Amino acid sequence: MSVRTQYVKDFSFENPNSPRSLSQSVNERPAITLDVDVETRQLGGPHYEVALRITIDAKRAGTQMFVAELLYAGLFALENFPPERIEPVCRIECPRILFPFARRIIAETTRDGGFPPLLLDPINFSHLYRQYLDQRVTEAEQPVQESSEVADAVSEGTAP
Fold first, then answer.
1. Torsion angle, CA of 118/121/125/127, rounded to 10 degrees?
2. Closest CA to 10 of 71, 74, 56
3. What's the predicted TM-score (pTM) here?
4. Hey, CA dihedral for 81, 129, 127, 33, is it positive or negative?
5. I need a surface site. Which of 42, 91, 121, 133 has the fewest CB within 10 A?
6. Distance, CA of 156 to CA of 64 (rounded, Å)
7. Hey, what domains does the chain have and what are their CATH numbers?
8. Are 66 and 115 in contact (CB under 8 A)?
9. pLDDT 10s digits, 68-91
């Protein structure tokens, strides 16, 4: 496995209630919602793009402090891996490599936005991968439901 390049694919930081949000009591801890997702796609041959999507929403006393959304990606060459190992490598090992860089971007941006730097805790990408697999299994087990219009059209013999 080799990292060909890393890059910010998309980034947004909003500080909608400044300067009021900056002058609120710092003794009250903000409520921070963090959402992390891993996106992968094969680009041809052994090359894969892996992206970390990190979304952060911070509020204090019901006031929006900031919202940050980062899509940080890397281009990886995965050679000599058995096919069944590609997905786990893309969803566990590659994000592990990308995370410290994404964490730094978030910390510096929150600091530059007037807040203390937000230092994200390490993320267990193995756990995220297991959740991803569980979700895929659950979605596969759900029966496909036809809309009543399609069912009516089939019963009347007018379905396309």
1. -120
2. 71
3. 0.80
4. positive
5. 121
6. 54
7. 2-140 (3.10.420.10)
8. yes
9. 999 999 999 999 999 999 999 999
